Amino acid sequence: MLSSDETVFGGYANVAAGDDVVFHTEEREHDNRPRSMLVYAPSRTCVVYAPADFVDSQAPYDGAPKYAVPGLAVKGLGPYFGV
Question: What is the average per-residue pLDDT within 15-40?
């Protein structure tokens, strides 16, 4: 997950990667899509959600890889579908 509300970006950490929150989809159709989820979305913020398999709940940490981005909690560089 990446959140522009992280303190490193000048935010208030209302939605932060370190919160280790798991969102579950529901079998409730919305906007012609079979599954949906409800999230807290503070104004003037941008949050990117990812499947739990990609999230590193320990990030950021000392000794993090050189590609680690403050406020970004992913296990690796991830797949690049659009390359």
Answer: 82
